[in-house]
Amino acid sequence: MKRKQWNEQKGVTLIELLAAITLTTIVIAIAFSALFSAIKIYKDNQAQARLQQEADIILSHLNQISEKQNEITIRLSPDSRTLTIAANDDTYTYTYDQNYYEISINSNQLQPGDSVTLKTNTPIPILLYVKDRNLSNQQVKVSTTLERIH
Amino acid sequence: MFQCRQNDEQGFTLIEVLAATTLLLIVFTCLFGIYVQSTAYNTSNREKLQAVYLAKKAVSTLRSDQATVPKNAKEGDEVNISAYNLNQSPFEVKATVMKRTAEADQVQLLPVQISVIETNSQKILAKTFVYLKEASS
Fold first, then answer.
1. Residue A103: phi, psi to the nearest 5?
2. pLDDT tens series, chain A, 150 aa
3. CA distance linking residue B61 with residue A125, whole number of Å
4. CB atoms < 10 A from the CB of B46, how many?
5. Mean pLDDT across chain A, nearest whole number?
6. Domain A14-146 adopts which CATH fold?
7. pTM value?
8. What is the spatial distance between Cα A5 and Cα B22, in angstroms, rounded to a whole number?
9. Does A113 touch chain B (CB under 8 A)?
């Protein structure tokens, strides 16, 4: 009885099987390419948002300090991955594995490992780059001037 | 019995499978829109950040370089500030004379609005203002 039923099964032909495999492959390829580009966009967005927030907080601290203090020291670590802003009693350190910083003051770029002390009684033109180490196309560039409101 | 039922199954037709795939793709496309949106928001946030700080720079530069407004400038007149090299791709900085105030007039100052505009879309991203001296001649 069992045997008979087994033999009655028709199964699928090779052509049908190939057609099914082809269709499945196409569908999976489309789904995966969508998934991978979503992952890429997600990573880019995440990096971009991180760099923006970093630039924003650095500049707002620089503004705060330059309003309060007479002198401000900016230091860049030799690997460019740590930026330190120091004044009398305030010290802010920015560091993140994936970020590196470039900062120009009065059109002079601060070299890695160097530090510069600035007087805040005159306006200080600043150009700040926050870049991502791994995604070379991700960077935030902000150009501004630190100035005391008299 | 069980075997019998298995043989009764008809499976899906190609049309059904295609319809299901199409529906799935539509859903995927909708979800994908979220990423596109978040990219757009990121870009606009970054531009706003840059524009606000650029406006601050413009105000500071105009004040420290003692920029002046042409004599008898009226409200709405544009002040030429191209000499100060404030434009920075993709932004341009514009200065427009604002309404005179009695207090500012006493010290020969005019309120000037500084706007930072995105060049392609001509959208104003940041606005601030500064008091500038009126040129004597």
1. -135, 130
2. 455 555 666 777 889 899 989 988 998 998 899 889 889 989 999 999 999 999 999 999 999 888 888 899 999 999 999 999 998 888 999 998 889 999 999 889 999 999 999 988 888 999 999 999 988 888 999 999 998 876
3. 9
4. 20
5. 88
6. minor pseudopilin epsh fold (3.55.40)
7. 0.79
8. 37
9. no
A141 to chain B: which residues are within 8 Å by CB? 50
Tokens 């994908």 sit at which residue?
B32
Distance of CA A130 to the CA centre of its chain: 8
Tell me the torsion sign for CA atoms A7, A10, A16, A21: negative
**Closest Cα to residue B57, out of B93, B82, B111?**
B93
Q: Cβ contact (<8 Å) for A145 and B45?
A: no
Nearest to residue A115, comparing CAs of A130, A93, A143? A93
B123 part of contact set with chain A, CB < 8 Å: no
- Long-range contacts of residues B117-121, Cβ cutoff 8 Å, at least 24 apart: B117/B91, B117/B92, B117/B93, B118/B47, B118/B51, B118/B90, B118/B91, B119/B89, B119/B90, B119/B91, B119/B92, B120/B90
